[in-house]
Amino acid sequence: MGVRARLLRAVIMGPPGSGKGTVSSRIVKHFALKHLSSGDLLRDNMQRHTGVGVVAKTYIDRGQLIPDDIMTQLVLRELKNLEQYSWLLDGFPRTVPQAEALDKTCQIDTVIDLDVPFETIKQRLTARWIHPTSGRVYNLEFNPPKIHGTDDITGEPLVQRDDDKPETVTKRLQSYEAQTKPVLDYYRKKGVLKSFSGTETNKIWPHVYAFLQTKLPDVSQNEAAMQR
Ligand code: AMP
Q1: Nearest in space to 86 (alpha carbons), one of 71, 108, 114, 105
Q2: What is the pLDDT of residue 6?
Q3: pLDDT grade for 198, boundaries at 50, 70 and 90
Q4: Is the CB of 60 under 6 A from ligand 1?
Q5: Which residues bind GTP (predicted)?
Q6: pTM, two decimal places
Q7: 94 lines ligand 1 (CB under 6 A)
Q8: Which burial class, exposed, middle or buried, applies to 97 when counting CB atoms under 10 A from its CB (0-12, 13-18, 19+)?
Q9: pLDDT number for residue 2
Q10: Catalytic residue among 136, 172, 194, 215
Q11: 181: nearest Cα among 115, 83, 101
């Protein structure tokens, strides 16, 4: 009957370092849907010094979540503009009240959960070491220094930024887990949670792709891009 396929309402979830950014951009490349990231939305508001932006900054600067009512209003207003499109929501909902508020306005079809072991993420996120005086950056996985812990040119010791230290990364992962586990459970109970487990984005991606293909046509022109 209808010429147009039903619109997809999807959410993507995954801890920092899970490859969520990469997977989201690949999804957008292949499928006709709009990507709405709550973090991008907030950063845009902060740059434009909107009322929400000014308030949001005070929370973000303290490393805290934006209160549910502000966040929900902001995102739901934006989604209203995307009513006639399929969309992929990224970074929202982060709490159960946000998920409940979202449910009141639309039915979520699927929640893509990138389930990457914390150990793998920790390895990835703590792989960066820098030489403080020159700013040279090394990555233990992709471009390690010739001698472990030492700058190639000066031979001086390398250091980790506070953000990249294992204890900081562990804290970030723990706080993600504490916040979002209830949201994952919420969607699991509703039967819309689809978890993709793995340690490498390039191995997880084909499964995400195949899954979404059952819901939306691939509109990308370049077949070779399928694996990327
Ligand atoms: P992100 O880029 O998704 O990591 O978001 C950056 C920051 O914006 C987060 O650390 C939070 O402070 C805030 N934020 C983004 N999305 C939400 C949300 N759904 N609920 C509350 N705070 C959020």
Answers
A1: 108
A2: 83
A3: very high
A4: yes
A5: 17-22, 128, 137-138, 201
A6: 0.88
A7: yes
A8: middle
A9: 43
A10: 172
A11: 115
By most ligand atoms within 8 Å of CB, the mutation choice from 20, 41, 66 for ligand 1 is 66
User: Catalytic annotation on 188?
Assistant: no
Give Cα separations from 166 to 43, 124, 162, 173 (angstroms). 27, 10, 9, 10
Q: Are strands 136-139 and 128-131 parallel, antiparallel or unpaired?
A: antiparallel
136 is catalytic: no
Amino acid at 208: V
The full 3-state SS of the chain, as one line of letters, equals CCCCCCCCEEEEECCCCCCHHHHHHHHHHHECCEEEEHHHHHHHHHHCCCHHHHHHHHHHHCCCCCCHHHHHHHHHHHHHHCCCCCEEEECCCCCHHHHHHHHHHCCCCEEEEEECCHHHHHHHHCCEEEECCCCEEEECCCECCCCCCECCCCCCECECCHHHCHHHHHHHHHHHHHHHHHHHHHHHHHCCEEEEECCCHHHHHHHHHHHHHCCCCECCCCHHHHHC
Q: Rounded to the nearest whole angstrom, what is the distance from the C-alpha of residue 116 to the centroid of ligand 1?
A: 20
> According to the model, what pLDDT value does residue 1 have?
43
Give the pLDDT confidence score for residue 94 in this predicted structure: 95
Question: How big is the CA angle at 42 (ends 38 and 44), to the nearest 5 degrees?
Answer: 115
* 136 strand-pairing partners: 131
CB 112 within 8 A of CB 20: no
Query: Can you list the domains of the chain with their CATH numbers?
Result: 9-123+192-227 (3.40.50.300)
